[in-house]
Amino acid sequence: MSKTNSGLVEYAKSKLTLPTIYMLGGFGRPLTQANIDRRVNQLRCTHTINNLARIQAGLGKYCFDCVGLIKGYLWEEAPGVVDYNKPLGSDQNVNMMYGSCPEKGPLSSLPDLPGILVFTEDLGHIGIYVGKDAAGQRQYIESTPAWNKWGVCQSNDTIRKWAFWGKYSFVAYIEPIVEPIITPIKIGDIVYVSGIGRGSSYGTGRSTGIYTNRRMKVIKLLPNAPFSYGCSTNASAPVGEAGANYITAYFRPISVRKG
Questions:
Q1: pLDDT tens sequence across 47-79
Q2: 254 with 180: CB under 8 angstroms?
Q3: pTM of the model
Q4: What is the chain's alpha carbon radius of gyration, rounded to the nearest angstrom?
Q5: Which of 82, 163, 184, 238 has its CA 20 to 30 A from that of 125?
Q6: How far apart are CA 111 and CA 114, in angstroms?
Q7: CATH ID of 5-167, from 3.90.1720.10, 3.20.20.70, 3.40.50.970, 3.40.50.2300
Q8: Closest alpha carbon to 161 in 205, 120, 100
Q9: Residue 85 half-sphere exposure, CB side, CA atoms within 13 Å?
Q10: Burial of residue 137, with CB atoms counted within 10 A of its CB: 0-12 exposed, 13-18 middle, 19 or more buried
């Protein structure tokens, strides 16, 4: 699946910088008079009829309703160029989108994974969780006429009350890779080693046994080598006598932690 959660977030953010207009049935194409006439004269859309002047003023802007912001990501080939209902079956309303989420739950259990969809309690409105701001407040992007926005805008938990979250079935959710935190270590530090070391003084030669929380002393550093921490099993070994027989193994940075 080529559509990802990070791609959905970037798509939604890109619409914040464009002129948009909210109208039911919109999914990213520029609003035309023919679009409006169809909703008024053929579909007899009450929302469009009741807000005709406001919508009419948005002619030429990119048109979205709330689900249309998600469908626009799935269908858009270029800004304003949208291929309807591809992949097949993705033309869904809010309730259908929620139903198609294989993973979902109450907002209190929302994973901190940008690109997850969020839903109001009545399943009548939808938005996209896009991450937290510098103050740690959750941020969302949605298309709405609320707060006199009439288009794509950003909101948070103090503005919009969401009730549920879901991972949408048409989006691949990729968890971020969390790099291990490596604490700076210097010569003379007492450390705990878990892993396999190399038995010579420069990180070549035979492998050592597998250590688990083995207490050792750092006696040499090779910061540019894969096995960069030289440790001695003798925690009282003197420091600075390179090549002495108390050097037992070199270890990778991720194998060594300070106590």
A1: 999 999 999 999 999 999 999 999 999 999 988
A2: yes
A3: 0.71
A4: 28
A5: 82
A6: 8
A7: 3.90.1720.10
A8: 120
A9: 6
A10: exposed
Q: Over the stretch 135-171, which tens digit does the pLDDT of each residue have?
A: 999 999 999 999 999 999 999 999 999 999 999 999 9
Decide the pairing of beta strands 126-132 and 138-144.
antiparallel
pLDDT tens readout for residues 226-254: 888 888 888 887 775 555 666 778 888 88
Among residues 119, 143, 16, the alpha carbon closest in space to that of 68 is found at 143
Cβ–Cβ under 8 Å, residues 152 and 67: no
What the block records as the tokens of 95 is 């309730």
Rounded to whole angstroms, how far apart are CA atoms 9 and 6?
Answer: 5
Across 31-75, the runs of DSSP E, i.e. the strands, are 62-64
Predicted local confidence at residue 154, as pLDDT: 98
Cβ atoms of 197 and 208 within 8 Å: the answer is yes
Angle between the N-to-C axes of helices 5-16 and 66-75, in degrees from 0 to 180, rounded to the nearest 10: 120
**Residue 76 burial by Cβ neighbours in a 10 Å radius (0-12, 13-18, 19+):** middle
Residues 6+ positions from 211 with CB-CB distance below 8 Å: 193, 194, 195, 196, 197, 255
**Contacts of residue 136, Cβ cutoff 8 Å, sequence gap at least 6:** none
CA 36 to each of CA 25, 52, 150, 179, 223: distance values in angstroms, whole numbers, following the listed order: 10, 8, 15, 51, 66
